[in-house]
Amino acid sequence: PRDIQKAKSEEFGFGVIGTYSETTDGAKSNIFFLRVNIAGKVIPDSERYFDAIESFKKDSADDNKNISSIIDEGEAIAATKDGFVLAGSFTTIPAKGKGGKDIFLVKVDDLGNMLWAKTFGGSGDETVSVVRETDDGGLIICGTNTLGGYSSIFLIRTDKNGELKN
């Protein structure tokens, strides 16, 4: 696990994000999401897994932790008015991404069912540190971009559907 946030409604407990991989080297890993109750117990059948390639395929199931085409890492979570937003990164491949690591956002409802997913990034390595919902339902994402051995902080604003805003 990397982050935990209390749901807006107490009945849904807390949302937890992290990275799941069956291998110790993290190859073919997925972002995981699960819910825990107020007592800290995992809510049965709340686990979900997301992959920056597989989750975009038609009829993709979010309960198969072993289907992954690339390395996905879950880094930050925010409770939203209607669920949670999960933020992480994925290691790009020629078919997906712009080089290095790019950002992977997933919006889920209170039960963890995917509502939408977005990927974006530049030629460097983008990693997310924090994500928060704004008053209008959009998102603020803060993290680090590393390019040519130099790191800089980024701050990104999206609308409520995860589309970049100027």
Task: Give a short summary of the structure.
Helices cover 0% and strands 53% of the residues.
Protein architecture, described:
The structure is a single chain. The protein is an all-beta fold and 166 residues long. Helices cover 0% and strands 53% of the residues. It is built from no helices and 11 strands. The protein has strands at residues 3-6, 14-20, 30-36, 48-50, 72-80, 83-93, 96-108, 114-120, 125-133, 139-147, 150-158. Strands 1-2-3-4 form a 4-stranded antiparallel β-sheet, with no helix packed on it. It has a 4-stranded antiparallel β-sheet with strand order 5-6-7-8, with no helix packed on it. Strand 6 and strand 7 form a beta hairpin. The radius of gyration is 15 Å and the shape is globular.
